[in-house]
Design brief:
Blueprint lengths: L2 E5 L4 H16 L4 E5 L20 H8 L4 H21 L3 E5 L2 E3 L11 E3 L2 H4 L12 H9 L4 E3 L26 E4 L1 H14 L4 H4 L7 E4 L4 E3 L6 H4 L2
Parallel strand pairs: 1-2, 1-3, 5-8
Antiparallel strand pairs: 3-7, 4-9, 5-7, 6-8
Amino acid sequence: MKAHLIYVEGNAESESCRDTCEASLQKWGWDYEPISGVTPHTLDEDEFPFPDVENGRLQSFGVDEPKKYPIKKSCLFNNLRLATKVYDAGESMIFLEHDTEVIDRCEIPFFKDLLFLSMDYAFKAPSVLADKNFAGWQQYHQKSLAQTYEFPRDIYPLKYYKDSVWNNSMMVPGTSAYALSPYGAEKLLKAVEKHGLEQSDYIYNSKVMNLEALNPSIVKLQKYNPNLSHRGV
């Protein structure tokens, strides 16, 4: 399965992270392609010409933090570009952010829509989601024996809290590393066309598509996170 490694061209921190990730991809024999991602300087609003989803997280950035708005939209467009490639090719592909590191072979079992590849590390430092309130979820996940499993609604801690059409759905814990099937890509693109644009990790939610995770994870987070989605490029 082809992996797309997204990085920010010309940004020294991002390119350093990309190099670390590439070394791990080569070590474990992954098929991959480094992709220069969308930034506020290269953002083309006409590429996905849809309004923001009403009352969503992306819309709130446009009102409350306008400097971050084009950064968040750029991140979203990177994910929508992958979905478009997956849908057009009719084959599953992998999305990797620059600050990830591969720790095993690329052996992906069957999944329906989206398979999260770094759940073991999603709620641990250096993740921005590292929080003692998520301890119960981590204990559950560590005891899970299934190779793939659906996000468990009863105890999964990350819920969509904005008052939009996707309120109270489960969200992916960021978009660090996931595999997307043609079925998932189609659902995502139809959701964008019908309801509008949303922050990337908010739009990948359980009301849009089926969310599963791989156990154990085959991707982890690098120790250093440039956090460019908040700082800019």
